[in-house]
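FAQ: What does the model actually see?

It sees only this:
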Amino acid sequence: MPKLLVVEASPRGEYSVSRQLAERFAEEWRGNHGGDVIVRDLATSHVPYISLPWIGGAFTPAEQHSPEMDEAIKVSDDYIAELLDADEIVIGTPMYNFSIPALLKSWIDHVVRAGVTFSMSYEGLVEGKKATVIIASGGNFAPGTPYAGLNVASDYLKQILGFIGITDVTVVLAGGTLAIDQGQTTLDAFVAQQTDVPLAAAA
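And it is asked to produce this:
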């Protein structure tokens, strides 16, 4: 049975545009594929930053691990297992200061791991998967707009996913969410207007 991994990075909960769009994608994917949807909510997972015990766990043989190394690297092992077990991935994230939130960067640091998701010769080991990245932002950073060049998030996420072997990546920009905060529109109305979010392909 196919699996979709949904990675949520927004701390806004039910008030998040990226979450609502990722959930809409997941609902359509489930309807088309009849598979399992696994949600990794980074806002509630307490994703740890990379630490010295993590580095030791990643670069020393398992039989030489201390208990601290085992504990630190287990987080990475669990995240990577979720990623490898999925057939498709959707990442819903806000844009912070033209880039991605620290929580999402920390998750990336755990799953981009030498000898596990990429080889020591820099070859991606996570193959045969498709990813959709949904980025919500207060301003409009779509191609052709005055501030498009400031959007670091899109290129970075495509680059890092491609580095581990996920090259089939669709990036969706849901810009202009500031209108919700300013009372010019509602969350529901804004989400309904985001027709650029691709429908999950049928099986």
